[in-house]
Design a protein that fits this description.
Bound molecules: pyridoxal-5'-phosphate
Radius of gyration: 24 Å
Distance between the termini: 68 Å
Structural class: alpha/beta
Largest sheet: 9 strands, mixed
Oligomer: single chain
Shape: globular
Number of helices: 13
Strand content: 15-25%
Length: about 450
C-alpha cells in the first residue's frame, strides 16, 4: 500500500502554477497593487483553484460506483472568503461550516443548505435550531448535543440530514495540535472508550432519523494510511449499525477532510487520486454505491493557490546575519511564526519590479513587521539576497494563512486579489483601513472607562 503511493504517478509538478504566480507578482507591482503604499497583499490563483476542484471530483468519480451521491463540502475555516466560496460553489463544491460566522459566509456566497454541513464542537441551541430550520446537515459531536437535537426534532419536520461525529482514536500525526483522532481528542464520540461504541449504535437504533456517520482523521501531518484507517473504522461502525437495525439506516458517510499539503516544494503530493484509490483499496465497501459520500477538504484545495507578497522595507545585518524586514509576519502567518518547526513556508525572492530574483544565495532571515523578536517568516534561509524595495513571497499560503488575520500591533488586514490569465486581478477582500482598525478597537467608546458610572453591587 505504501509502495503503491510512492511508486505510482507523481503529483502535479506545479510548473504552470509557478509561472502564473511569477506573472501575477510582476503584474501586481506594475499595476500598483503592490508598492510603497500597499506593502503586502494576498494573491489567489483562480485557475489553480479550479484545477484542484476538478482533480478532487475526478479522483472520487474514478473509484466510486456510478451514480453514488457525493458532496464535496469545502472546509470554510481554511479560506473564509465569500468570493472563494462562490467560486467553489460554481464548481459544484458546498461548504463545511463550524461557526455562525462561517455559516453566514457560506450563505452570503449562495451555497445552498443541501450543500452545507455544520460540524462545530460547541454548537449552541440557537445554532442548532437555525441549522435544522434551514435543512442543513448536522453532525452531533456528543451525547449532550444529541439531547438538544432530540428536543428540536420533536417540533420539526426534520429536513436536515443528521449524523454523529465519531473519533476512531486511530492515533495522531506529526502535528499534535492538528491531530483529531488521538485517544483524547476533543472532537466527536471517542469510539474506543468503554461503552461508547454500544452507545453510538443504540443512539442510531433509537433514532431512525440518524442517517449519516461522520469522522475526520486529519489534518496536516497525518499520513494517508492513518486517514484511511480512520475511514475504515467509521465504515465498519456504519455496517454494524445497519446490521443491527436490519436496514440501511446509515446511508451516507462523511469522511472529513485532512489531506496533507506539501509545503516543501511546488509538487502537489499526496494527490486526491492517491487518497481516493487508497480508500477504495482499504475500504472497498465505501465505493460500491451503497453509501453516499461527503468530504470536507480545506487545506488541500486552497493552500497551493495562495501567495502572500510583501515589500522589503529595510535590508540590514545583525550579528553577521542578513535580515530582510518585510511587511508579512505574524499577522498573515501566525502558525509559521509561532510554530516554525511544524509550519515552514517556502519563500521566493522578487526584485523591485516583481521579477524573480537571481544571484548568489545568501543565508538570511525574512522578518515581519511586528514588534517581537520571533516575528520571522523564515530563519537562516538560503536564497538570493533580499534588498530594500524587493519583494518576499510566502508560498502555499492560500489556506489558514492570509485569510486568518491576527491583529498583533493593530496591523491592518491586507487586501486579497484573485488573478486570472493575462495579469488581471479581481478584488476578493479590500485592505482594511486604519480607520476601520480604530472603529473595531472601541473607537466610538473612547470614554467608556473614564466616564463610566460604576454600579456598586
Ligand atoms: C471536521 C473537519 N472537517 C474538515 C476539516 C478540514 O481539514 P483540512 O483543511 O485539513 O482538509 C477540519 C479541519 O480542522 C475539520 O475539523
Amino acid at each position: 500500500m505504501g509502495t503503491h503511493i510512492e511508486t505510482e504517478e507523481a503529483g502535479d509538478t506545479g510548473a504552470g502554477r509557478a509561472a502564473r504566480r511569477d506573472e501575477a507578482v510582476r503584474a501586481a507591482v506594475e499595476q500598483g497593487l503592490l508598492g510603497e503604499d500597499s506593502p503586502v497583499v494576498g494573491l489567489l490563483d483562480v485557475i489553480g483553484i479550479r484545477e484542484s476542484v476538478a482533480e478532487l471530483r475526478a479522483a472520487f468519480e474514478a473509484v466510486l460506483a456510478p451514480g453514488t451521491p457525493v458532496l464535496h463540502a469545502f472546509a470554510v475555516k481554511a479560506t473564509p472568503l465569500v468570493p472563494v466560496l462562490r467560486l467553489l460553489r460554481e464548481e459544484g463544491v458546498g461548504a463545511e461550516v463550524a461557526s455562525p460566522g462561517e455559516l453566514a459566509l457560506a450563505r452570503a456566497a449562495g451555497v445552498p443548505s443541501r450543500m452545507t454541513v455544520l460540524d462545530s464542537p460547541a454548537k449552541t441551541p440557537a445554532e442548532l435550531r437555525e441549522a435544522l430550520d434551514l435543512g442543513i446537515a448536522v453532525n452531533a459531536d456528543n451525547p449532550q448535543e444529541l439531547d438538544r437535537i432530540d428536543s428540536l426534532m420533536r417540533s420539526r419536520a426534520g429536513r436536515s440530514p443528521l449524523g454523529i461525529r465519531v473519533n476512531p482514536q486511530v492515533g495522531g500525526g506529526s502535528i499534535e495540535a492538528l491531530s483529531t483522532a488521538t485517544a483524547t481528542s476533543k472532537f466527536g464520540v471517542a469510539l474506543r472508550d468503554e461503552g461508547a461504541r454500544e452507545w453510538v449504535v443504540q443512539a442510531y437504533l433509537d433514532r431512525p432519523w440518524l442517517t449519516r456517520l461522520h469522522s475526520h482523521t486529519g489534518s496536516q501531518g497525518v499520513p494517508l494510511a492513518l486517514m484511511a484507517r480512520g475511514v475504515a473504522e467509521t465504515y465498519a461502525l456504519a455496517e454494524e449499525i445497519n446490521r443491527r437495525a436490519g436496514r440501511r439506516q446509515v446511508d451516507t458517510l462523511d469522511i472529513g477532510g485532512g489531506l496533507p499539503v506539501n509545503f516543501a516544494s511546488e509538487e502537489t503530493t499526496p494527490t486526491y487520486a492517491q487518497y481516493a484509490r487508497l480508500l477504495a483499496e482499504e475500504v472497498p465497501g465505501l465505493a460500491d454505491g451503497r453509501y453516499g459520500l461527503v468530504t470536507e477538504f480545506g487545506r488541500s484545495l486552497l493552500a497551493k493557490h495562495g501567495t502572500v507578497v510583501a515589500r522589503v522595507e529595510y535590508a540590514k545585518a545583525s550579528g553577521g546575519r542578513a535580515v530582510a524586514v518585510t511587511h508579512a509576519g505574524v499577522q498573515v502567518a501566525a502558525r509559521t511564526v509561532y510554530a516554525p518547526g511544524s509550519w515552514p513556508l517556502r519563500i521566493s525572492a522578487y526584485d523591485a519590479k516583481g521579477r524573480p530574483k537571481e544571484g548568489p544565495v545568501v543565508v538570511q532571515d525574512v522578518a515581519g513587521p511586528a514588534c517581537f523578536a520571533g516575528d520571522l517568516l523564515a530563519e537562516g534561509r538560503s536564497m538570493p539576497l533580499l534588498e530594500q524595495g524587493d519583494y518576499a513571497a510566502a508560498l502555499d499560503t492560500g489556506a489558514y494563512y492570509f485569510a486568518h488575520h491576527y491583529g498583533y500591533n493593530s496591523l491592518v488586514r491586507p487586501g486579497v486579489y484573485g488573478f486570472g490569465p493575462g495579469g488581471r486581478f479581481a478584488v476578493v477582500r479590500r485592505a482594511q483601513t486604519v480607520e476601520e482598525v480604530v472603529a473595531e478597537s472601541g473607537g466610538a467608546q473612547a470614554d467608556a472607562l473614564t466616564r463610566a458610572r460604576w454600579e456598586v453591587p
